Amino acid sequence: MSVSALFGTRVMVPNKSLAVGAPKGGRAGGMGMVIECSSRPKKKATAHHMKTRPKKTQPWDVRRRPTVYPPLPPLPPDWTLAPSDDSAPPQPPLDNP
């Protein structure tokens, strides 16, 4: 779809030689057409979240630090070593109900 089909008007694309102060090289250099038709541009996701995030304004809240919890007890071992002697009879598997 073309720009003129979207807006219903003709869009004039100026020559590269008419551009004043256009950057040489790069991505935007020499493109020639800039469309600025949004009267209320929307912020992208990160910019929106940074603008609307809750801000700490009270002094007691600004000085507040994360909660310090006591360390967790050590976890039980995942594996236990069985004796390597062959005299021990094999144990039957446990049945789950």
From TrEMBL:
Residues 39-97 are annotated as: Disordered. One of its GO terms (biological process) is translation. The keyword Ribosomal protein applies. It holds the Pfam family DUF5323. GO terms for molecular function: rRNA binding; structural constituent of ribosome. It comes from the Eukaryota. Keywords: Ribonucleoprotein, Ribosomal protein. InterPro entries: Ribosomal_cL38. Residues 40-56 have a biased composition (Basic residues). GO terms for cellular component: chloroplast; ribosome. Residues 68-77 have a biased composition (Pro residues). This is 50S ribosomal protein 6, chloroplastic. It comes from Nelumbo nucifera (Sacred lotus). The gene is LOC104589113.
